[in-house]
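User: Can you model how iron/sulfur cluster sits in this protein?
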Amino acid sequence: MKVDTYRYLDEWIPNYYPARKVSEDKYIRISRVGTITFLTRSENVQLHEVFMDKELYDRLEASGHIITAKNSDQVMNNLQTWYQRTFGGTELHIVVLTRRCNLNCTYCHMNPVAPSAELESSDMQPHIQDAVIDFAFSSPSKSIIFEFQGGEAFLNFPGMMSFVEKVKNKNINIRKNIEFAVTTNLTVITDKQMQFCSDNGIRVSFSLNGSEAIHNRSRITRQGYGSFDAVMKKIKYLRNEFPGVLSSSPLCVVSKDTAPYLKATIDFFHEHGFKQIAIIPLNPLGHARKNNLSFDIHDFLRHYIDALNYIYEKNKTTNGYFSERIVSVLLMKILCKVDTSFVDWRNPCGNFGGAVVYDYDGELLPADEARSLRHEFSLGNVMERTYFDLIQDRNTFRTMNLSFRDRDSECRECPFNPYCGVSPILNYARTGDATPKPNESEECLKTIAVLDWIFKKLVEDPLPLLQMLPELNKFKEFSKQLHLMEVTTA
Ligand code: SF4
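Assistant: Here's the modeled complex, given as structure tokens:
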């Protein structure tokens, strides 16, 4: 019964998730190897029939949406490439140099203590540093990123200097690709410290929640004063004196009170020369929990999508790009063959597989968010456990397994499955249950809302959206292959 212009069910097996309608006659399908394809209504229907057009078959075979006799090896290679960062060994090593901090932000989840607290019980001690470095170098990952955190990490600057020196010495023979980063509130950083960061290629990221009135609502000193003036003075000074060391994308935590001002906040960042904003909803952890600072996800998403529309429209009229971090992470997922290095938004998430936290006393945690939930999520102490010991222990991967979306029947039928990023730890913090449920978990709702928005814009007019990619030129070829750039290059 076969005819040459069709391909039949005995020639392929599906390797895609269900379709999502993105416009009147366009559907998107994401494959299990992270690729996307747009289909017309009639093409999409053919995937539920006993044969399809040869042209459609060829396209889906090339993108890996179907597995055939010809492409099966390639699809398996692509699958390994997609999961390269998931199974390649822990890459991000978050080192809590101290839990001392001069600020006392209303939502902090880092268990901060006063700068005057006893050093021995607040700063990471040299023998713990040594164990952390040995542990990190045991990861098979060729790239190791050490990110220093606090408290305020620069309050233990001697610890930072000795850590960097020890890593460099150890790496003389091991020769991994080492990167350093530090997260700081900027208020205590000195020229000497910044020079050290500049000399050692340490990327400096920081928090800035917006204009003075907004920032000072939450980022306050221990005496209750706002830190805005001090932070802005430092930004101005450090940009002049140490160009390129400060991140161009501040972390901006948004609460129920500040979300209504997101558009003004975007203007603020734009006017002050930033290229990207990382809009982070306030999480129910640490001080935020104690201070009863809840934030309904539906309220957040309403303001967040408004803010994305605002950036998108702004990109139509301004030169250069302005971006939001999660949108750029998701665009990278759409356009790259390897899943993102952003451990907080992956399926499965990067808990231990991609990142590990070493608290000031050597306690091992699978993610940053677990710092105020140590009793529930601790993986032991770096003085007692080795990397090899942990990767053989199923319990190490408890939260990573809970984030894996194919374990849930609804998620197995979700069009956005490969690009999803739920957090069992945040789910536990909110509900007392570490199992994220589809259409209930806040990260699920965010995944669906942002991806619906992105795909709508990709179809409508992709350029202002693709301008949210810092390296747009690199992706122009991919975009053409996906027929995304025709509108603008015609
Ligand atoms: S959690 Fe939500 S977005 Fe993620 S795969 Fe499941 S249904 Fe889809």
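A couple of observations from the model: The chain has a mean pLDDT of 94. Residues 318 and 464 are 10 Å apart (CA to CA).
User: Helpful, thanks.
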